[in-house]
Amino acid sequence: MQRKLQRGITLVEMTCVLAVMSLLAGIAGPSMHRWRQRAAADGLLSALTTDIALARITAISRGVTTVVCPSQDAATCHGAAEWSEGWIVFLDDNKDKARQPDEDLISAAGMRRIPSLSFASTTGRRTVRLYPSGMGYGSNLTVTTCLDGVIHAKLVMNNAGRVRVERPRIANPCPDAAAMP
């Protein structure tokens, strides 16, 4: 007696495969969400680092004071320590750290709304002013990036106008923007 060769899969086999795939998706889903948040935060850190470097190069090449400041409308500085709404880079011809309508806007960055992400600088230095020498005199600027209440990274600009990114080795709670020195 010859057996007939079966093609395809049985209902039991299909159910087992779907159960395994559902289990893997349940495990990978939250990890993928955190990975996407970290990637978005890293992209924004990179954009701010690039704009500070652009401001430094512009100040040196044009011989004009250049400012990078937080902005809500991509046209003026808002003066708060919170950079989460975005920032602008402009030539500060009159050296007042506020963009006037006749001052050239070099770059404007708007933030993508990521609910668990915050960017805040210390209250001691809320803007970056780079002089024609490329220097940013005063105290270091530190912009702290937080994800879900934990420090993700710190962008630090020193007085020479150089930028570095520091990443904590252990999870530290994010300081309140209003309480930062």
From TrEMBL:
Domain of life from the UniProt record: Bacteria
Domain General secretion pathway GspH: 47-161
Cellular location(s): Cell inner membrane
Keyword Calcium included in the entry's annotation: no
Residues spanning the membrane: 6-28
One cellular-component annotation, GO: type II protein secretion system complex
Gene Ontology annotations of biological process type: protein secretion by the type II secretion system
KW Cell inner membrane (keyword) present: yes
Keywords: Cell inner membrane, Cell membrane, Membrane, Methylation, Transmembrane, Transmembrane helix
SUPFAM superfamilies found in the cross-reference section: Pili subunits
Annotated membrane topology: Single-pass membrane protein
Main location: membrane
Protein family according to the UniProt entry: Belongs to the GSP H family.
Record's protein name: Type II secretion system protein H
